[in-house]
Amino acid sequence: MHLTLLLHILAGTLGLVSGAVALSVLKGGKLHRKSGIIFIYTMVAMSLAGAVLAAIPHQGLHGNPLGPQRFSVVGGVLTFYLVITGLLSVRHPGRSRWIDASAMLLALTVGSMSIKFGFDGLNNNGELDGQPAAPGFVFGAVAILAALGDMRMIIKRGLQGTRRIARHLWRVCFAMFIAAFSFFLGQAQVIPEPIRIIPLLALLALAPLIVMFYWLWRVRIKQTLKDTFEGASHEPTS
Length: 238
Known about the structure:
mainly alpha, two-stranded antiparallel ribbon
């Protein structure tokens, strides 16, 4: 399990770095595409390794016993799902619909299990496997909303234009948020004390969400407002 843990740590670190690069550079450019691909591959490795580690009792790097943590399993699978569907949003427009249907079923399963675990935690003094119950409801809500988005896309037989880009944006950004939150706040104890400044760590953890909302505004809301005003300006006057 030590090799799996090492893979989880290295892939997660590279995923956060490559994700930060992809979010910072010109969208659609060569560097954005290359860093984005590295982000996808490393996040897939990180999330799957993390889900395996969370599901199986093992020893940590310092020999401390770590037991099954159901919320971490859900978080790992949800991250994997978001990254893959985020990538598929901007690739392979002619893919088979069974892939989208399978992704939707995975999201519904993850969402249902996560909410169940959340209620299990509430009935157990607010904790499950030593973790607070709140992530169960957050992960569950995100997974079910994502599944509804999958259903809408399947019914419409695909997405075009800004809707497709927005789907890509929010999914990869939320996946990065899960990873950043898990590292900067969930594992704050491993960060050297001189730089363990909680407000700074919280800002770093929330940065993917901040960037996500900014780009969603740029891609969807701003464009919608622009189209509305341009349409109004071309209306004939009496």
